[in-house]
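Structure first, sequence second, as always.
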């Protein structure tokens, strides 16, 4: 005989019980197939007017009263619900006593258990699906909708409460009003002029501050000294509005903190506030210094520096970041501390700013404080690149040779070959370049080819080992060849100079132009690709315009355009190889640990 399983019966019973508790104006629709969502509920007013508010429901039913407070849900279902624009209510129904408990998905703290496919949700008596809970659904969804709109004009209203010290409420309200006065989007207390504000409950007890927005977001901040109460509320609000997506509000509050000099002892809050200013390096650094982020190299120190330096590398004000490191150095001096990583990080910053001699001084300070740096591959490589850039080729040569012995990657051989060329040791350089030619990396192979051409040109020009260190002499010879229309020598010298001035777009354009006119196809395509690696499409676009004017090689433009597109895709598919100066955002061991 066909029987209906109890699980199917429970499913229907739970839906009926859940629906019976809702206002009769609300519309409940079954979802099929459900994909972890059983019902969709649309809210209508008591007069039947539509509100546009909806929420999803996932129902889990049981007969066992010992399991009424917990339910297991697949992690992929949780992630799917979180990806939806409509919030999801997780509902637990126990048929033994007809009890229902519910929790919103946005209120769940759900770290995924490693290696597990499900997560157990726990309910408490406060999650009872009663009249109070049902009555709060409308207001919760309204707040959630306002949060998702994320309007710059949205106003937040703080509602202070002091349940254990009612005598403090007046003074607390007055102080908070004064503190938030510079920012019109934050108000203290409700009034009739506010339009759809988002309410922030601020409950102050004898030991902590509780900030919350409905059931959507909240945090608890403990304090030991009542003098830090106001700053704790201020920075707590920055964290809260940032958490719900109002980053612009958070950044404006952070700027006001700088102007008014308000700081907090809570490093986590201070770091978060500084990170909201990632579009303004100077402001972010000032707020970090105001809160003494620079005095301890912990996770908050790393968070601030990595956020401010990486948010938009093209607009970072490195002089402001330098102030941070210098303040750190000054603090260490006052307290008899020396951290090699501080000087190492400052060296990288100066390197990236083009101040190579200052960078080398900081590298040397770092290695004197911690001699073990000279055993670290990355340190030797970065110091060598700085020395090579300022033409201290002998020192760079010995360090690059050490890099080859420590690591021996194709890039190490390429760097060493550059130093050997600069030192006039063309034969040794050629041996390392031939090793690079056999590697799997197409970019290194192309650049090695370009260096081999440079070696051949140096040999054919008489091997000016004494002149290779003197760019003025090479440049003068190059200009003379241009004036005399000696295209062969001009092409050779442009390629040689490009080894040591990799970002010079004009040199690459000339190398492409001269090899094209002399019908040196292999050399032309090599320089074409190297120019793209170093300078992007600029040299090619100018070269293309010249070819169009000739009107005799227009058929080649299709091939050139395809090669340009290929080079662009290749360049974007891997880490940029050049320039040689690679900035590390913060010093070891934090940097190495983060990369691992």
């Amino acid at each position: 005989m066909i029987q209906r399983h109890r699980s199917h019966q429970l499913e229907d019973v739970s839906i009926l019980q859940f629906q019976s508790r809702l206002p009769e104006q609300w519309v409940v629709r079954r979802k099929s197939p459900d994909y972890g969502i059983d019902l969709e509920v649309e809210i209508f007013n008591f007069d039947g007017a539509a509100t546009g508010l909806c929420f999803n429901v996932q129902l889990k039913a049981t007969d066992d009263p010992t399991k009424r407070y917990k339910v297991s849900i697949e992690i992929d279902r949780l992630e799917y619900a979180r990806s939806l624009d409509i919030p999801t209510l997780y509902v637990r129904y126990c048929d033994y006593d007809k009890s229902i408990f519910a929790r919103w998905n946005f209120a769940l703290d759900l770290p995924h258990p490693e290696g597990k496919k499900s997560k157990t949700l726990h309910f408490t008596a406060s999650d009872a699906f009663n009249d109070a809970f049902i009555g709060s659904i409308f207001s919760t969804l309204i707040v959630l909708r306002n949060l998702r709109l994320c309007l710059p004009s949205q106003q937040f209203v703080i509602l202070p409460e002091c349940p254990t010290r009612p005598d403090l409420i007046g003074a607390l309200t007055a102080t908070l009003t004064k503190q938030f006065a510079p920012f019109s989007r934050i108000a203290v207390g409700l009034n009739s002029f506010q339009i759809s504000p988002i309410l922030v409950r601020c409950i102050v007890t004898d030991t902590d501050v509780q900030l919350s927005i409905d059931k959507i977001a909240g945090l608890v901040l403990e304090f030991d000294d009542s003098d830090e109460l106001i700053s704790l509320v201020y920075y707590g609000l920055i964290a809260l509005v940032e958490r719900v997506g109002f980053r612009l509000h958070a950044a404006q509050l952070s700027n006001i903190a700088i102007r008014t000099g308000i700081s907090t002892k809570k490093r986590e809050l201070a770091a978060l506030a500084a990170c909201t200013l990632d579009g303004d390096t100077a402001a972010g650094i000032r707020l970090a210094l105001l809160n003494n982020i620079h005095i301890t190299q912990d996770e908050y120190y790393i968070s601030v520096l990595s956020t401010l330096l990486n948010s938009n590398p093209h607009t970072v004000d490195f002089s402001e970041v330098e102030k941070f490191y210098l303040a750190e150095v000054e603090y260490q001096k006052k307290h008899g501390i020396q951290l090699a990583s501080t000087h190492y990080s400052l060296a990288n910053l100066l390197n990236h700013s083009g101040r190579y001699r200052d960078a080398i001084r900081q590298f040397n300070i770092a290695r004197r404080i911690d001699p073990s740096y000279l055993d670290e591959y990355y340190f030797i490589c970065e110091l060598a690149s700085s020395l090579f850039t300022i033409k201290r080729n002998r020192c760079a040569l010995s360090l690059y040779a050490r890099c080859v012995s420590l690591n021996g990657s194709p890039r190490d051989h390429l760097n060493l070959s550059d130093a050997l060329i600069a030192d006039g040791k063309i034969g040794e350089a050629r041996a390392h370049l031939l090793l690079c030619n056999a590697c799997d990396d197409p970019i290194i192979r192309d650049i090695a080819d370009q260096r081999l051409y440079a070696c051949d040109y140096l040999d054919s020009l008489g091997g000016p080992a004494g002149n290779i260190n003197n760019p003025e002499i090479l440049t003068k010879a190059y200009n003379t060849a241009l004036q005399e229309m000696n295209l062969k020598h001009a092409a050779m010298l442009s390629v040689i100079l490009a080894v040591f001035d990799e970002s010079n777009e004009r040199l690459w354009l000339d190398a492409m132009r001269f090899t094209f006119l002399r019908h040196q196809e292999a050399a032309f395509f090599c320089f074409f690709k190297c120019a793209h690696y170093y300078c992007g499409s600029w040299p090619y676009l100018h070269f293309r315009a010249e070819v169009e004017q000739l009107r005799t090689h227009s058929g080649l433009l299709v091939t050139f355009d395809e090669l340009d597109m290929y080079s662009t895709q290749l360049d974007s598919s891997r880490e940029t190889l050049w320039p040689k100066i690679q900035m590390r955002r913060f010093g070891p061991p934090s940097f190495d640990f983060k990369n691992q």
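Margin note: The two ends are 62 Å apart (CA to CA).
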